[in-house]
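Appendix B. One record, verbatim.
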Amino acid sequence: MNTELFIAKKIYKGEKERKSFSRPISAIVIVSIALSLAVMIISVFVVTGFKKQITKRIVGFGSHIQLVKFDSNNTFETQPIDKNQELYSVLKEDKNIKHIQVFATKPGIIKTDTQFEGVVLKGIGSDFDWSFFKQNLVEGEKFNVNDNVTTNKVIISKAISQLLKLKTGDSFIMYFAQNPPRARKFVISGIFETSLVEFDKTFVLADIGHIQKLNGWYNNQISGFEITLNNFEKINEVSENIIDLLGYDYSKPDKMLKVVPITEKYVNIFDWLNLQDLNVWVILILMTIVSAINMISGLLILILDRINMIGILKAIGASNKFISKIFIYQAGIIVSKGLLWGNIFGILICLLQYYFGIIKLNPESYFLDKMPVNFDLILLILINVGFFILIMAALLIPSNLSSRIEPAKTIKYS
């Protein structure tokens, strides 16, 4: 039988049955721990949700890695490469790679009777993975790409459709600044919305054949390849592997390719996302410090409130370690209750946000229309275990205060 734990439970239950100054203190400490843990859970789930959702949307527009011509720049007016690459078959065997598809881009201007807007025509082939855009289609349907016949159907974003007052089934003319200037007529097959306003206002998806004809390319010429991975965390590893496979033959500059991870292509966005990690660590540290201070103060009050009991225990031969363990166990009971209520409150708030989207966001500032939540059981366990260990470790010092109490004095004035 664990005597120290038995006494600690009796003390905790006894506080409920008698009027004690330590009773409201225990309640305050439990509330403090619960609120601190809830804030930690919400902060971590929201920040990881931001990173996951924004990364998913950016990858949906440009995959994890792009292979383009070595001397290409960051403009959407690209130089062609041959899609019949020896590297293609090697990459298909890589277990880290989920999908490879061709693409081409060309900037242009959509003009209607009353409005005009500069956009980027993104050409896709028959190997295009539609899963991302299917999830974000709000009207109409996707179009089919045939390698033999070029279709005039396109999908545009809801932002562009509202700006230009276009709907599914409407047609529009897109003009391209080149010598000589050219124009193409397209028909809207579907409308998508991802809440990434910067991207939604930029891209229009069309058959890659249009870009090939506009640029005077052959059917086997493209802007590059888009590579989707099974795991985003492998992006640097796979990029390095592809670079090693490519090598650099400077005697054939026209055939040299460049590896562009999505984290480098949109470095500002990913730097902003990584900065959120620092904010989370600041919140975690502050909440832990606040809870530790409250718990230490509460434990000191618990010790002072039971000073007579300590004197009696010492008088009958109880050691300082024995008494310290009693208060450590009592503190552990209080912390455990705080953790329980903190988990309930934090998870409940996250569930409400996940299913009902109570907190809305400005997509132009946050790239999302509502605050995202990412439930991660491993992170939840780590937060609880780490928080509990740190709080209990902080309580070792005040628990040793009982060793300074002299039994003769406490019994004399009791």
